């Protein structure tokens, strides 16, 4: 056992952080840096790396709160060998089927509750634009009955990988909330001292970190094992770390986090969106219960 | 202990209900939230109707032009208007619930005569210039500066979280007149005309994407000394005194509204299948119990205030529990409606707005400090 | 509306607090002071008072963490006109039927899940002693199938009143946990100051108070309205205030609360016991959901 | 990142498993928890078996008589012994995991030769005299006083929360030798023979009704200066140094145990119908996810410690989450078993014992302070 980043993994992490941090790289740049080709075999022009590397990359994407159909495009390339932009969309237990970024997509990977998968050319998808809460993640509402799919070992892999990569995004986002909260708490003064000196704020931040760190390790381990139930558990913890973290980050920012400009709210809105992407809480818990 | 109406209260409730039943259908459609002049017109027209029916300033003293109703009657008014779906106090909020009562208590006869009637009749709108970007929960750390120049104060600074600034006639403004005094001691209360030169209103877009609030930028605004309420440097006391006017009713309408929302959510859940989820059903049941209890706490605080003149220290306890229950309500709503929660709509707007409940008017952290130190008597830290 | 204590209710509260505070009055004393006769009509030798007065009395009993079959004895006298010691026992959704204090009882009032009631002479109850976690509330485990009962308006009253009076006990206990935590936090010093000066401890205590106060008002209101669903809501909040409060009280006491002598643990053990007496959480939530 | 065993690790695991499979059936029945001499005999016999098989002091350096295993092997040892249901370290805890490593690091050759072999062979039992009733989480505020008198220290004071004091031969004792120095500076580490005149052991009944701990009363106990580890007044550093020995394994066995308990609880729930309660089922699933992740965090911290020599700052993060998850586990257990939770038994005993997890070895409040200030770099308050 050596459950820590290898030197190569550290390098990958550093390189990606440089590309995505503090700027919004174009889709072209993300493609060039190989974000979607990490797991594609070398003979097919990819980097031939594994799920752990993909998870590290997506953690950085989450930290930078990148927009775009990240998860689906990676999974389409790595698991289905499909080129172009794609998004994995789950038919939820209730409520509408929502497809992010539909007009930019080549494929919609529609996952049914039983994990059967319909691979749809995006142009053939009948959907209407809907006003999304997250301004950086436009949504389209699917019309009519979702077409049926099929179940193969590959489709189960699509379901599991999409959940895991979304969990990685959430872990990155959760770490971002800790960083933003701490930075603000260090400088903002109230009642004559930085608010970060108040125990209430310190404890809020400490719990944020604890949630983010536990989720991070869970996501890394699930990437190494590739186990579906472990992935479900990791997603559960990552969602909690991201949503709860973004919520607390906003609380630390007080009124100043309540403005549109402060951008703290974008962390929360994205955390909410990713919480429903891949397997949601109910589905993860169901999966975990099957092994008890 | 008595929860039912007295004969007089039942009578008051019956008449109010009759009047609402007759009046509400006559109202025009509510304006779009982004139509500020439309909102002002709608809100002031409603206020005028209340005035004509004798319900304006229901809790104001009779000698200030109000109805002088008992706290119980005030509560009945808030409950019935909310249940009937009557308009909210809206643009009249600051005038009726803060600036007005402050002037009624601390104003000279001339100030009362000048400022109070237009508020009651829905003719003048007030906004509040208390909060500042740098001050936050530490309200008394405000830095907007007023320098005396003859018969006027010259005011420079900025204010934030001002509602209805776009359509207000007056602003109740807190300014610092003595920068050397301890922070609560150098503050003065001024009535600022919003059309005075040097006043700039900038809409403030919130995380919900709306511009419910504005920032005020004040650049050498001249405000007559005659517009000062109370003594110079006594503005903190002047402002705080008004809180005793509130008598436990502050969140009454919202509590009734939350009870309605829980029931509505149960209906949604029954319709979309979420009701079959035992965990969600229990969440809804828990919320129902909490808001029912919070309503009882409102009734308790109002009764105590009626008997003792002040609402007591229960306000922080109420706000702590109410803020958290209401935020949880919208989180549960998001689970009930599923994917709809990611789309703009009533529930997601409430969820976003609701994020302010544990921040605005004293964060929950500050509320806990108050409860611990003022009610429980725990010592301050070094 | 005048939702506050009357002068008579204040007097009753003061008088009872004097009897029960800081001492364990004998059963004889409790009987003499009229704890079980409060609601019995005056012609029958009672005090002819109502549910609100009973709730105030039981709040004081809870604050003093009194032992004995308090709730059942009161309800037996007030609702069923039965003299002598009694306890209300609910047949739970799962697990054993447990009867507190069996050998001291005259009657066992056995409530089935459908609120049907079997009034059993205690001597006829077949049960074996069981080692209870709460040392002041010995338990007997019912053998065999619980005998069936009958449903009348009176039996529903027994169920509702027992739940409400237990909630009143919990409210008193919850207030006690606040008082004990605050008293300790004021005097115990760590790191050079009273621990009550630390924000973390202050906030724990503030939340304890907020829970206790909300539950108190809920219980009072339910006593005035007598409404079954309002009673269920009050019990839910009172249980939470008591159990959570006792738990936090122990945390405030740190290691010193962990000793048998410190007696803080008795608050928690009793709160756990009363949580399961009357309607438990699941039943309260079910009742609340019926009205949604 | 690699979770699977290396060839060497797999080999180590296989041999250990074989040995456990052969040895455990030969063990006598575990003694009653209240039978202290029986417990000592059982625990020391197990230690002797480990010694004979080469597993004693598995993580101790070879030159201290240990096996010098890698952190990964140490973790495998803890995992396999827990999975196999092997005895806990029990009475050997302080000797093997604290006093021993401290002596191995800071002791003179004579001290190492005198004290270490009996610990490894299960011949001498140690207890810990650190905590005091007045100090609590502020461990360094200890007041037990030691005054030098010739070649001995004369010690007077009291200690609390001492496990196995009834059957211990030695006590690793922290005493104050310089009352005028800053509180961390005037402390000295002494090895105290438990049979020294003036030592009184009083069993301490805990809220669980058991006497797992004792109080020590020290009345002018003479302890030879030769029993001092490190320099006078340097005891705080001496004690803290040992923590680096732990290398992330502190809660490894308990984490494995909690995973087993969650599975057991699911079995109980399936048997008694609680599994039909969706909310409870989800609680169990959540706990399963958390303990699985906590086990991964143990593996992470151990790997980091193996590479960097120290376990890093992750310890506080782990303890925070683990303490709370474990307490929740027993609260959920109480809901699963229903009325049984009010009766003495394994689950209620665990629930009561578990109340200490957020208190002992630094309260959760202290852990959060540590995380906020040492890891996140937030400033100390005034």
Automatic annotation (TrEMBL), chains A, C:
<comment type="similarity">
    <text>Belongs to the acyl-CoA dehydrogenase family.</text>
</comment>
<dbReference type="GO" id="GO:0003995">
    <property type="term" value="F:acyl-CoA dehydrogenase activity"/>
</dbReference>
<keyword id="KW-0560">Oxidoreductase</keyword>
<dbReference type="InterPro" id="IPR013786">
    <property type="entry name" value="AcylCoA_DH/ox_N"/>
</dbReference>
<dbReference type="InterPro" id="IPR009100">
    <property type="entry name" value="AcylCoA_DH/oxidase_NM_dom_sf"/>
</dbReference>
<dbReference type="Pfam" id="PF00441">
    <property type="entry name" value="Acyl-CoA_dh_1"/>
</dbReference>
<dbReference type="GO" id="GO:0050660">
    <property type="term" value="F:flavin adenine dinucleotide binding"/>
</dbReference>
<dbReference type="InterPro" id="IPR009075">
    <property type="entry name" value="AcylCo_DH/oxidase_C"/>
</dbReference>
<keyword id="KW-0274">FAD</keyword>
<dbReference type="Pfam" id="PF02771">
    <property type="entry name" value="Acyl-CoA_dh_N"/>
</dbReference>
<keyword id="KW-0285">Flavoprotein</keyword>
<feature type="domain" description="Acyl-CoA dehydrogenase/oxidase N-terminal">
    <location>
        <begin position="23"/>
        <end position="82"/>
    </location>
</feature>
<dbReference type="InterPro" id="IPR036250">
    <property type="entry name" value="AcylCo_DH-like_C"/>
</dbReference>
<feature type="domain" description="Acyl-CoA dehydrogenase/oxidase C-terminal">
    <location>
        <begin position="165"/>
        <end position="272"/>
    </location>
</feature>
<protein>
    <submittedName>
        <fullName>Acyl-CoA dehydrogenase</fullName>
    </submittedName>
</protein>
<dbReference type="InterPro" id="IPR037069">
    <property type="entry name" value="AcylCoA_DH/ox_N_sf"/>
</dbReference>
From TrEMBL, chains B, D:
<feature type="domain" description="Acyl-CoA oxidase/dehydrogenase middle">
    <location>
        <begin position="127"/>
        <end position="221"/>
    </location>
</feature>
<dbReference type="Pfam" id="PF00441">
    <property type="entry name" value="Acyl-CoA_dh_1"/>
</dbReference>
<feature type="domain" description="Acyl-CoA dehydrogenase/oxidase N-terminal">
    <location>
        <begin position="7"/>
        <end position="123"/>
    </location>
</feature>
<dbReference type="InterPro" id="IPR009075">
    <property type="entry name" value="AcylCo_DH/oxidase_C"/>
</dbReference>
<dbReference type="GO" id="GO:0016627">
    <property type="term" value="F:oxidoreductase activity, acting on the CH-CH group of donors"/>
</dbReference>
<comment type="similarity">
    <text>Belongs to the acyl-CoA dehydrogenase family.</text>
</comment>
<dbReference type="InterPro" id="IPR052161">
    <property type="entry name" value="Mycobact_Acyl-CoA_DH"/>
</dbReference>
<keyword id="KW-0274">FAD</keyword>
<dbReference type="Pfam" id="PF02771">
    <property type="entry name" value="Acyl-CoA_dh_N"/>
</dbReference>
<dbReference type="GO" id="GO:0050660">
    <property type="term" value="F:flavin adenine dinucleotide binding"/>
</dbReference>
<keyword id="KW-0285">Flavoprotein</keyword>
<dbReference type="InterPro" id="IPR037069">
    <property type="entry name" value="AcylCoA_DH/ox_N_sf"/>
</dbReference>
<dbReference type="InterPro" id="IPR046373">
    <property type="entry name" value="Acyl-CoA_Oxase/DH_mid-dom_sf"/>
</dbReference>
<keyword id="KW-0560">Oxidoreductase</keyword>
<dbReference type="InterPro" id="IPR036250">
    <property type="entry name" value="AcylCo_DH-like_C"/>
</dbReference>
<dbReference type="InterPro" id="IPR013786">
    <property type="entry name" value="AcylCoA_DH/ox_N"/>
</dbReference>
<dbReference type="GO" id="GO:0005886">
    <property type="term" value="C:plasma membrane"/>
</dbReference>
<dbReference type="InterPro" id="IPR009100">
    <property type="entry name" value="AcylCoA_DH/oxidase_NM_dom_sf"/>
</dbReference>
<feature type="domain" description="Acyl-CoA dehydrogenase/oxidase C-terminal">
    <location>
        <begin position="233"/>
        <end position="376"/>
    </location>
</feature>
<protein>
    <submittedName>
        <fullName>Acyl-CoA dehydrogenase</fullName>
    </submittedName>
</protein>
<dbReference type="InterPro" id="IPR006091">
    <property type="entry name" value="Acyl-CoA_Oxase/DH_mid-dom"/>
</dbReference>
<dbReference type="Pfam" id="PF02770">
    <property type="entry name" value="Acyl-CoA_dh_M"/>
</dbReference>
